[in-house]
Design a protein that fits this description.
disordered C terminus; lipid metabolism; Rossmann fold; EC 1.1.1.62; single chain; seven-stranded parallel β-sheet; 11 helices; VLCFA-Steroid_DH; about 55% helix; about 325 residues; alpha/beta
């Protein structure tokens, strides 16, 4: 009997040591990525990958902020989005504020393969050092079951094309020249929802899980050839997509987020973008574990939360 207790004590001590090491590693890694300015690569390192940066979904939110921050760090910018007037406005703003050369390409990423030949032609002969796959969309205005939204087939097609196909096709267009030059950075904007299934946001979270998986795999394939692929999984950033949501006190401005997230390039292949979002992710995992969210009680809770948030927003 004594030997059995000794074995259990040894197992308990081993488990405690493993947990302590895991927590220590997590805290140290977080401090290294987010809190040590001397570890950052800097603008010259980023510019050394190529003269141009390409940003999709570049006329608002995170994409616009990335475009301006990359220009501030000395790169010329190709802005790709569907609204030509907004594209031209942002291009002029970048030239005025940062003194960089710009180019615009109009494209609606809810379309199919037919849109990418024009994009490929527009990027021809440019030395592209950074690609930011940012464009993305929700298929519902708030949390709901998949069959409760209008025109289900069209919405599903739009989300798959915009959130998933755009990442794969833009990577396929830009990656060959990066491999040839043996340098380049691909930044794929995902979501904090990419790590597990989320009922009532099923298609959106699944599309972001694709982004995360695709980024990890391509990054492993081409790391030895000098190409860096980073997945950025933000929580709540103050954009048009997130404004219907509650908890405004947890939001980060797109400008602050892009600046902090770009500081992590070259330090980590997966990031929440900023320290506050890393903390938010830990809290969500702690208070809304996956097993609960996928249970019938979890779905009811998320549904009630979504209804409450929407009604509260309408009351403002």
């Amino acid at each position: 009997m004594e030997s059995e207790w000794d074995a259990l004590r040894a197992l308990g001590m081993f488990t405690a040591v493993c947990l302590l090491l895991w927590v220590t590693w997590g805290l140290s890694y977080t401090a290294y990525v987010h809190l040590l300015p001397q570890a950052r690569r800097g603008a010259p390192w980023l510019r050394a990958h190529g003269a141009w940066a390409v940003v999709t979904g570049a006329t608002g939110g995170i994409g616009r902020a990335y475009a301006h921050e990359l220009a501030r760090r000395g790169l010329n910018i190709v802005l790709i989005s569907r609204n030509l007037s907004k594209l031209e406005h942002e291009a002029k703003e970048i030239e005025r504020l940062h003194g960089r050369v710009t180019r615009v390409i109009q494209a609606d990423f809810t379309g199919g393969l037919e849109i990418y030949e024009a994009i490929k032609a527009g990027l021809k002969d440019l030395e592209i050092g950074v690609l930011v796959n940012n464009v993305g969309m929700l298929y519902v205005p708030h949390m709901m079951k998949i069959l409760d939204c209008d025109n289900v087939a069209k919405r599903l097609s739009d989300v798959i094309n915009c959130n998933m196909m755009s990442v794969a096709q833009m990577t396929a267009i830009v990656l060959p020249q990066m491999v040839t030059r043996r340098k380049g950075v691909i930044i794929n904007i995902s979501s904090v929802l990419d790590r597990r299934p989320y009922p009532l946001l099923s298609v959106y979270s699944a599309s972001k899980a694709f982004v995360r998986s695709f980024s990890q795999a391509v990054g492993a394939e081409y790391f030895s050839q000098g190409v860096i692929v980073q997945t950025v999984s933000p929580s709540i950033v103050d954009t048009n997509m997130t404004r219907p949501m509650k908890f405004q006190q947890f939001r980060v401005s797109p400008e602050d987020f892009a600046r902090q997230a770009l500081d992590t390039v070259g330090l980590t292949s997966q990031t929440f973008g900023c320290l506050s979002h890393a903390i938010q992710s830990v809290l969500v995992d702690l208070f809304l574990p996956s097993w609960f969210c996928l249970s019938r009680w979890g779905v009811k809770f998320l549904f009630l939360f979504g209804v409450y948030s929407t009604k509260s927003e309408k009351a403002l």
